Amino acid sequence: MHDIIDGFLTFQKDAFPQRSGLFKELATTQNPQALFVSCSDSRVVPELVTQREPGDLFVIRNAGNIVPSYGAEPGGVSATVEYAVAVLGVTDIVILGHSDCGAMTAISNGTSLDELPAVANWLQHANSAKVVNAARIHRSAAEKLNSLVHENVIAQLTNLATHPSVALALEQGRLNLHGWVYDIETGSIEALDSGTRRFVSLVEHPQTCAAATMPGVPA
Questions:
Q1: Are 175 and 91 in contact, with CB atoms under 8 Å apart?
Q2: Of 39, 60, 111, 151, whose CB has the highest number of CB atoms within 10 Å?
Q3: 120 in helix, strand or coil?
Q4: Are the C-beta atoms of residues 33 and 58 closer than 8 Å to each other?
Q5: What is the DSSP secondary-structure string of 48-113?
Q6: Are 170 and 185 in contact (CB under 8 A)?
Q7: Average pLDDT, integer, range 112-128
Q8: Catalytic residue annotation
Q9: Model pLDDT for residues 128-169, shown as the tens digit of each residue
Q10: Exposed, middle or buried: residue 66 (CB in 10 Å: 0-12, 13-18, 19+)?
């Protein structure tokens, strides 16, 4: 905690004054550009990866960057998605998976989660990715994990589309969905292409969307 408190003191002394105008504006309102659903992994920081300022991103972080399908008893993720789309009016949602994901590693390796019942229950929301990935042939454990990370992004996009607020926004052409996989070691991102359903380099294909319905954006 000593280092964390020192960091806050540095923020208050140096970083905050440099952005005092921004924080004054944000004190009473927010207008984020996008909702990011990211893993809780300490190595993945959406604001850092995208070089965004406070107020730019609305962020959900949880184990495995998971969005449960909409159900009779919506949880915190569902409430946050609904608020972001229906109230804040975000125009883009990004599911951000990443390399060396602990949640996906547990699924890929078939790790026993008997002593972690809450984790085991949560990861059931990735079951479709688990089943699809298990049916494929993988040359190594690393390849199997990498494939699962990508497949989970697709699964969570599918879950996301079951949310009424998202379905309506897609129908009305005011929302884009994105599926990204971030590689921690190289800093690169692969994005799901809606046309080919394959992941491509975001650097080489910066306009890539997983579901693009806004006017002027190819679907």
A1: yes
A2: 39
A3: helix
A4: no
A5: HHHTPPTTSEEEEEETTS--PPP-SS--HHHHHHHIIIIIS--SEEEEEEETT-HHHHHHHHT---
A6: no
A7: 96
A8: 39, 41, 43, 98, 101
A9: 999 999 999 999 999 999 999 999 999 999 999 999 999 999
A10: buried
